[in-house]
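note to self: dont lose this again. the chain is below, predicted strucutre after it. 200 aa total, dont forget to put it in the shared folder this time
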Amino acid sequence: MSSSIIVALTKLIAGTGVRWTGCAPEIKQRIYFANHTSNLDALIVWTSLPKPIRARTRPVAARDYWIKGRVRRYLATKVFNAVLIERKKVTSNNNPLALLLEALDQNFSLIIFPEGGRNTESECGPFKSGLYHLGKNRPRVELIPAFIDNANRILPKGEVLPVPLLSSISFGSPIRVEQNETKVQFLERARNAVIQLKRS
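---
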């Protein structure tokens, strides 16, 4: 199954409306970070990017979920070129931050979900520290907030088959880790940048 088929299917099922409010879709290295309510989220962000940008952008996904079954594994490794990270048995050999920095050093952009897992609440949950460490270690990479709306109704938690509904995604203005900004301060500011896109 090719990426063009996946893009077409996603648009058919999710009908994603794309809005760029704080930046334009450009071929530059970025980390797109978004709220997380559905297993469709990474797919929605990835398919919302123009093809040349999509080709250089890798979703970050949970290894334990995406290696189960031939279809998931094929999509993750052959179509999305996802960075598969360990969530439970983290060692020095599979440290998620090291894998993400390696992908950035290969000039890829990334799609990440700083909440760490799917959040069924209406409000975006607290962010884990990964986004801060990526921004601190690679300050030249743009950090782009994004808000995904309605994906949780298309594929609710525990469901296998999606329900065709309209979803949307908004991309905001780039942010960065400011000098002397603490981890707590940055993560709250990054979270607010996502929430503001919901309200705008």
